[in-house]
Specification:
Elements: H1 12-17, H2 19-24, H3 31-44, H4 46-54, E1 57-59, H5 68-87, H6 97-106, H7 111-138, H8 147-170, H9 174-188, H10 194-202, H11 209-241, H12 258-269, E2 270-272, H13 273-298, H14 324-331, H15 338-359, H16 372-393, H17 407-410, H18 415-426, E3 434-435, E4 438-439, H19 455-464, H20 478-489, H21 514-522
Antiparallel strand pairs: 1-2, 3-4
Helix pairs in contact: 5-7, 5-13, 6-7, 7-8, 7-13, 8-9, 8-11, 8-15, 9-10, 14-16, 18-20, 19-20
């Protein structure tokens, strides 16, 4: 006890005298942990340093909409922990990368769950950072004074997508390798700098050991380091400017008066972040962890595709689900527009959110006064979902796994027609064209093609080819042409139609000179 008239501060030794009494105030099972906590605090001062940060005041009405930022950070920590463990086993070599992942999945103890945690943790991180950005946009929390908060969030969003993209190649299977090849070819079409971008992506002229080493370093060291740096800056800005209050209609943001109003709000209706507001973040982050763990145990990471094979021309690379929409968008670009849109589109995706807090740094935050904000979000979500579904269906991709046409589909006893049906698949025509619901959907449906085209028109189309269709003049014999044409002529919905009317079946000769040029000019 302090003596009368003694103005000296209480010493560390006098504080330690009260420690047993403080420890006895806790239940007996946790007293060793309490002693350890006091010991660490006395020698490190961690709580005195970081405690005020956790106790920083936040608006009382900041509810469940504000939990997605901390949940994204939790998903990132899952990636760091599981990625570190995976990196102790994974060998970034073209000869061993695929094998080590197979060993992790099927041989290492808990390896299947570990890969599943990393895979679903990545999906959770992408999904949560997207939802967090949407919440910030809808509530206009990017306005003064939180413009740099928003900009660092944009950087973290693109770094998260960069993690997902670079992680694909590390699987070193067909999907991963060919996805990078497609990305490099797309980057190579950018005017002026395309060659350098493609070289930067692949680390050379082709995908190989240099590419894998580069992607491993970027995925494991470079991008996580940047995320830690920008995340620290982002959290510092959140502490500096505070969490944005829920918007109210009729209370616009005025840079001249906002700070004073916000300070008054915190004094009159603020609560400490820990524990009054943080409990929601803890519960939601715990739910995210449980969900990722459940998916990892129940399903595990998707099985790897075949090992990369440069001689396999029938590869159909598919990115992870969060890139499906962009995959679809690139596939649907009008022919000839790639070299323009491939640099205009990324510039728009970066510049629009970047200039948003600069051009609209004040004014109303309420959605009631900004009806265009939810409309833009809804239109964007609908567009992404529609493109995502197209990415799953991939109608522009040939269906290489299409089985031969069944006899019930051919529906003919004519041996010429039957051989034509076999050739129709052997020549890869069935990969892109539907016949009675069987085949690909990249090209027109040929179920009733004889109702639309005459024999000469069919021959012309096969000989000359067309957009996305090869010409078969030089790689198809006349006999094969006759058999395929006979099969297509049998595909008539109305047997009495003009084009399908029976007539003399003259053999088809394939000219490679002037006659072919005349056909291409006079045909349909």
């Amino acid at each position: 006890m302090e003596s009368p008239g003694n103005d000296e501060p209480e010493s560390a030794e006098s504080k330690e005298i009260d420690l047993p009494a403080l420890v006895r105030a806790y239940p007996r099972p946790v007293r060793p942990l309490v002693r350890l906590a006091f010991w660490l605090e006395d020698r490190t001062g961690l709580w005195r340093t970081f405690g005020p940060m956790l106790k920083h005041p936040v608006p009382r009405k900041a509810g469940w909409m504000y939990v997605f930022g901390s949940a994204t950070m939790m998903a990132f920590l899952i990636q760091v922990i599981t990625g570190t463990v995976l990196a102790t086993i994974y060998v970034p070599s073209t000869s061993q990368a695929y094998g080590t992942l197979q060993y992790i999945t099927h041989g290492a103890p808990l390896g299947r769950i570990l890969r599943g945690l990393h895979y679903y943790g990545a999906s959770a991180m992408v999904l949560l950072v997207g939802v967090h950005m949407v919440r910030v946009y809808l509530t206009a929390a990017y306005k003064y004074p939180r413009a740099v908060n928003w900009l660092t969030g944009i950087v973290l969003l693109f770094l998260t997508l960069g993690l997902g993209f670079t992680g694909q190649l590390l699987r070193w299977d067909q999907d991963g390798v060919w996805s990078v090849v497609v990305a490099a070819e797309s980057a190579g079409r950018v005017p002026f700098v395309g060659h350098y971008l493609a070289h930067l992506v692949m680390g050379g002229q082709t995908v190989g050991g240099t590419t894998l080493s580069r992607f491993f370093a970027i995925h494991v060291f470079f991008i996580p380091g940047l995320i830690f740096g920008f995340l620290a800056l982002h959290l510092f800005l959140v502490l500096k400017h505070g969490i944005s209050e829920p918007p109210k209609s009729g209370e616009p943001v005025d840079p001249k008066t906002y700070r004073k109003k916000y300070e008054t709000l915190l004094k009159t209706d603020g609560v400490p972040f820990w524990p009054d507001a943080a409990w929601r973040d803890v519960i939601f982050s715990f739910i995210v962890c449980l969900t990722v763990l459940f998916l990892a145990i129940k399903f595990g990471a998707p099985e790897l595709n075949k090992p990369p094979d440069p001689t396999e021309i029938h590869a159909v690379p598919r990115p992870d689900w969060y890139f499906f929409w962009f995959f679809s968008l690139m596939a649907l670009l009008p022919h000839g527009s790639e070299k323009y849109l491939l640099w205009i589109l990324p510039m728009a995706l970066v510049s629009v959110p970047t200039f948003l807090p600069i051009l609209f740094n004040k004014g109303e935050r309420s959605m009631a006064k900004r009806p265009w904000a939810p409309i833009i979000v809804l239109a964007t979500v609908v567009t992404i979902v529609a493109l995502w579904r197209l990415g799953i269906q991939a109608p522009w991709t040939p269906h290489f796994d299409t089985p031969p046409l069944a006899a019930s589909v051919v529906h003919s006893e004519d041996p010429v027609v039957q051989r034509g049906a076999v050739l129709f698949r052997d020549k890869a025509c069935l990969y892109c064209h539907l016949v009675d619901g069987q085949g690909g959907i990249r090209g027109p449906d040929l179920t009733h093609v004889a109702d639309r085209l005459s024999r000469d028109q069919i021959v012309l189309r096969i000989s000359n080819g067309g957009y996305n269709m090869p010409a078969f003049t030089y790689n198809m014999k006349a006999e094969e042409m006759n058999e395929i044409v006979a099969f297509l002529e049998s595909r008539a919905h109305d047997p009495s139609s003009e084009h399908a009317a029976p007539g003399p079946k003259t053999s088809v000769g394939i000219d490679t000179g002037t006659d072919r040029e005349k056909l291409s000019l006079t045909g349909e």
